[in-house]
Design a protein that fits this description.
- The chain is an alpha/beta fold.
- The strands form 2 sheets. A 6-stranded parallel beta sheet has the order 1-8-5-4-2-3, with helices on both faces. A two-stranded antiparallel ribbon has the order 6-7.
- Helix 4 crosses helix 5.
- The longest helix has 19 residues.
- The chain is globular, with a radius of gyration of 20 Å.
Amino acid sequence: MLNFSFAFPTNVVFGSGAFKSLGKEVAKFGSAALLVEQPGPLEENGTFAESVALMKEAGVAVAELSGVESNPRLTKIEEGIRLVKEHKLNVIVAVGGGSTIDTAKAIAVGAADEKEGDVWDFFAGTRTVETILPVVAVSTISATGAETSCHCVVTNNRSEDCDQWKKWAIHDMTVCPKTAIIDPKLLVSVPKKLTAAGMADTISHIIEGYFDGVEGNPISDAIGEGIVRTVLESEDVLEHPDNIELRAQIAWASTLAMGGIQDCGRLNAGWPAHWIQHAVGAMTDSSHGEGLAVINPAWLDFINEENPRKFVQFSRNVLNLERPEGVSDVEYGQMGLDYLRARFKQWGLPSTLRELGVTREMFPALIKNIMNNNEAFVFTEQQIEQVLERCYE
């Protein structure tokens, strides 16, 4: 186990009916809120209207920012920053999934910037976040874990050429929301495909760090293995979306998977499959969870070939796969990865980059964008090309 520091600064309000506490929670941090919204089912079923009502009942004035898209756009974030400053708002509220919450985090960073510079500077790594407006996040899909995480991922869409778009991130404890409200009742309207994508996303958040090659970390291993098993064992939610107990299980699994606790003592050198997906998502506007379901197993194929010990542990402890006589460690580890691929496909998720809208003509631009990102993981062009080829079709 390696040395580490750990904090979980977000207060979590979890459970059926927790959404009703929104007004009270927001009022702890400010009297004038920006509500960040993504159009769709939450608008249609009245969740945003109820959010406004709950905050107003608590004495909080509300301005609304709608139009958030998947793979949140920098131009929308800049619009939100202008609204906050124009109306002198002092708390940012996100009701939605990872895109909505990351938009809110980025707005909170830019609106609190006393130098009033370019908010993209923080994502490019040329400036460090020093202060941020408080963020209250209401999670309405179990996926990214953005409701408690120190990560904020946005897409710079300023160029008219989407090949030039960059999907980069801030990784800083200051961007953790002050409060996360997780109410399983809000999750029942999430469609099957998005639920499945979120489940794959949650599993990816575990296995990117789990297979880091660090020895002697049984506690973090057990936490990660338990989270993955919980997601797999809760897959009946795909056929029974109104099952509150199953929704609660995958919601808590999703939050813990990105909360940092299972990363304690790990190498944490970077999230290579995520950085590849970020480039793919920026160019194709494809779903983050769907992309990881394709890319992460392909990346791990190569890691298993180099060091299969942990893959043997995963196939045995998590997937409970019987090991045929005479099968090597690499082959047994590969059985686990192939099992995950099959499970994702069974859930209705894509299994190739082509299904995500990637063409081979995009490979050079994808490789360039991945090589030129500002993340810590050190790639080679050959590694990226091998992964893209492995999961292209």
